[in-house]
Design brief:
The protein has about 775 residues and is an all-alpha fold. The chain has four domains: about 250 residues, no CATH class; about 200 residues, no CATH class; about 150 residues, Up-down Bundle (Four Helix Bundle (Hemerythrin (Met), subunit A)), CATH 1.20.120; about 55 residues, no CATH class. It has 35 helices and two strands. InterPro entries: CPA3_Na-H_Antiporter_A, MrpA_C/MbhD, MrpA_C/MbhE, ND/Mrp_TM, Nuo/plastoQ_OxRdtase_6_NuoJ, Proton_antipo_N.
């Protein structure tokens, strides 16, 4: 909330100042590392809705701490980058505020222990990403990308909410830590498949799994800092985090493994191929993110110790190199004026520091030794080596996917920076230090962590994998290279294929684009067709239901009332009460009139006369005035039975109704009578008799039943000590039904506004004054000489 004001005061230094927020969070979280590495868990809970057992509960363990440190650490560099990238932008303060909100939502998501809290922050990430993707809202492509991301991820949010409720019903707790201890109960439940579908739907939409991947490339309409943060450490990783967190509760089954491995493998290959056919740097990196998310989902599906270890290491490696490469792409676009890789070249001489950052990140993406990416690749190959034929098939998919991703890394590292310099829209030069800090530090972190395998295994791999698996794991990371190990030869095969992919990338791109042209449609076009169809269907339904014929609306309302009155009585035997029985007697005994006083008969007569007056009214004005007689009779009944406040309210309502109707009807001729067709008269009269008969029968059934006085006794006993009011009716309206009364007030106010609008007479525009006509000059005919 303060970011725009800080930007106004600090100007170009706002990014540096606001970066202190995630930096402080990062330092705070670093203080938890010794405790978490020691095997302890830090938990905190604040009662939120105690009646339903909902708490604001948070949990710091190995998994959540890795994600939170990545979010805050990368977020610090992103804030610095944003301050320089959007320098001079009139809405930079608003952008920085959105970025901080996005960061806070993602931190809350990964630290939440309650499923309700997780859902709240899950939706906040969707809302904040919508604001960031559509930041440049003057462009149609940005608006479309933002709406598409919001629609898809919010569908996943509804899946998550349904899954959370089902887990709570089955486990008896909203906390994921408690649900993890009851994994057997969830897996053996008959609703396991439904719960699994709910959580898979949430994760697949958020983490862009095939075929729900198409929104992620369109999110590249956001500014580059958003792309760097979105793809490395925030929203797209939320689905991966959810699957990892729910592994002890839902994992370990055959359907879990098959679904995650299948969709993860397809997404890996699809995203890698998609990256090879792109020429825009941001689109290339976006497609590789899809592939990497598929790879992470595949590893979670395998579920072995080595696979989960590979998942943890690959997440860290991916966060380092992907954020760095996106920052490099933004720096190139910022300084050279283009991101098209086909027109870039020779930038290493003009942007040497940027080239170093790109090279460091690409080394980890390729998976060369002395990087975190190398250990991640070795662990994922170890998870599949030596198994059945299905394991070998998945291993082949991993090798192919990693080779294509490594080929893309070579392309991003070499094509823009090496080779012959080419003309660009802007004269390229080195980016500001705030834009270089991220690529250099993150690229260096990917290498430094790779040359410290003991620290990487003990402080990162073991806590993270242990939190996912729910048991202790061991690290065997080492810098020693065993030339006889088949894993090393699989890595060598991956690098060789990567070089082949890089050398043939132009031919591969041509083939893939021809395939797209021949196919003619994509998931993106299907989404557009569905959205346009939904809009057209909504328009048709609106035109059908809201056609503006008030008379037809009233007919539907009263027909629904008649159905609501007689439907339950017919279904549950309520009409049997009116049949003659030995206990109740016949009609004459059951419906005998009570002994009424003369003034009571007078009130009934007044109501009947008012009814007759409305029916036979000669003019509209007489009908309106006669209508108030009914309300007056009801007010007298209230007064007679000891409810003067209700009588007064009813009388005021009737007076105001008559006055308002009279004012509204001033637009019409009140001295006329409405002549109606016989069909309309018969239809409305039949409906009125049916509804009146239904209300009467319902009241008779209620009055002849046993009166349950528990609610009345509760109000009588609690109105004074709790609400401090002696007028029970007022206490009910103001305290016990406060929101209901507020709604009624809102309805009355809305009606009043409508009446005021109807009564306001539009001012007649002044009659235009015609300009004076120019004088008519009569030309005399000339005399022509004969």
């Amino acid at each position: 909330m303060l970011a725009p004001f800080i930007h106004r005061l600090a100007g170009g230094f706002a990014g540096w100042i606001l970066a202190l927020v995630p930096a402080s969070i990062f330092v705070l979280l670093l203080g938890y590392v010794p405790t978490v590495v020691g095997g302890e868990v830090i938990a905190s809970a604040i009662p939120w809705v105690p009646a339903y057992g909902i708490n604001l509960s948070f949990l710091v363990d190995g998994l959540s701490l890795i994600f939170a440190l990545t979010i805050s650490g990368v977020g610090t560099l992103i804030m610095l980058y944003s301050g320089a990238y959007l320098a001079g932008h009139p809405q930079q303060g608003r952008f920085l505020a959105f970025m901080l909100a996005f960061m806070g939502a993602m931190l809350g998501l990964v630290l939440a222990d309650s499923l309700v809290v997780l859902f709240v922050f899950w939706e906040l990430t969707s809302v904040t990403s919508f604001l960031l993707i559509g930041f440049d809202h003057t462009r149609q492509a940005a608006r479309r990308g933002a709406i598409q991301a919001l629609v898809i991820t919010n569908i996943g949010g509804m899946f998550l909410l349904a899954g959370a409720i089902l887990v709570q019903q089955l486990s008896g707790s909203w906390e994921m830590s408690a649900a993890r201890a009851m994994g057997d109960v969830l897996r053996e439940s008959g609703l396991y498949l439904v719960v699994l579908i709910c959580f898979l739907g949430a994760a697949f939409t958020k983490s862009a799994q095939f075929p729900l991947h198409f929104w992620l490339p369109n999110a590249m309409e956001a500014p580059t800092p958003v792309s760097a943060f979105l793809h490395s450490a925030t929203m797209v990783q939320a689905g991966v985090y959810l699957l990892a967190r729910m592994t002890p509760s839902l994992g370990g089954t055959e359907i879990w493994t098959n679904v995650l491995v299948l969709f993860g493998g397809v997404t890996l290959i699809w995203g890698a191929l998609g990256a090879l056919k792109q020429t825009d740097l941001k689109q290339i990196l976006a497609q590789t993110t899809i592939a990497s998310l598929g790879l992470l989902v595949l590893l979670i599906g395998l579920g072995s110790d080595a696979a989960i270890a590979a998942m943890v290491l690959y997440f860290v490696a991916h966060a380092f190199y992907k954020a760095g490469l996106f920052m490099v792409a933004g720096a190139i676009d910022h300084e050279a004026g283009t991101r098209e890789i086909t027109v870039l070249g020779g930038l290493a001489d003009k942007m040497p520091v940027t080239f170093i950052g790109a090279a460091l990140a690409a080394l980890s993406m390729i998976g060369l030794p002395l990087t975190v990416g190398y250990f991640a690749k070795e662990e994922m190959y170890l998870a599949l080596f030596g198994g059945e034929w299905t394991a070998w098939l998945v291993l082949a998919i991993l090798v192919a996917g990693n080779a294509m991703l490594a080929g893309v890394a070579l392309m991003v590292m070499i094509r823009p920076f090496l080779g012959e310099a080419r003309p660009t829209p802007k004269s390229p030069h080195e980016a500001p230090i705030a834009m270089l800090a991220g690529p250099i530090l993150l690229g260096a972190a990917g290498v430094v962590a790779g040359i410290l395998p003991d620290w990487l295994g003990h402080d990162v791999l073991v806590p993270g994998a242990g939190a996912i698996l729910g048991r202790g794991v061991e690290s065997h990371l080492t810098l020693a290279l065993d030339l006889t190990s088949p894993l090393l030869w699989l890595s060598a095969l991956t690098w060789a294929l990567a070089i082949l992919v890089y050398r043939q990338v132009d031919a591969i791109r041509t083939v893939l684009r021809r395939f797209d042209t021949a196919l003619g449609w994509t998931a993106d076009t299907v989404f557009d067709a569905v959205m346009f169809g939904l809009i057209r269907f909504s328009g048709a339904v609106t035109r059908f239901l809201h056609h503006g014929q008030l008379e037809f609306y009233l007919v539907l309302v009263f027909a629904a009332l008649a159905l609501a009155l007689f439907g339950p009585m017919l279904a549950w035997g309520g009409l049997d009460w009116i049949m003659p029985t030995a206990e109740l007697g016949d009609w004459s005994q059951r419906f005998s009139l009570p002994a009424l006083q003369f003034y009571e008969w007078g009130i009934i007569a007044l109501a009947v006369l008012g009814l007759i007056a409305v029916l036979v009214a000669p003019t509209r004005l007489v009908a309106i005035l006669s209508l108030g007689v009914q309300g007056t009779a009801v007010a007298l009944i209230f007064l007679m039975f000891g409810a003067p406040d209700l009588a007064f309210t009813q009388l005021m309502v009737e007076i105001l109704s008559v006055v308002i109707l009279t004012f509204v009807m001033t637009r019409l001729r009140l001295d006329q009578r409405d002549h109606r067709r016989f069909e309309d008269w018969a239809r409305d009269g039949t409906l009125a008799i049916i509804c009146g008969l239904g209300v009467s029968l319902m009241l008779m059934l209620v009055l002849n039943g046993t009166l349950d006085t528990r609610l009345s006794e509760f109000f009588t006993a609690t109105s004074v000590p709790i609400a401090h009011g002696h007028n029970i009716v007022n206490v009910i309206l103001v305290d016990y039904r406060g929101f209901d009364t507020l709604g009624e007030i809102a309805v009355v106010m809305g009606a009043g506004m409508a009446v005021v609008t109807l009564l306001r007479r539009p001012k007649k525009p002044p009659m235009p004054v015609a300009p004076p006509a120019p004088p008519v000059r009569v030309r005399r005919p000339r005399k022509v000489a004969s």
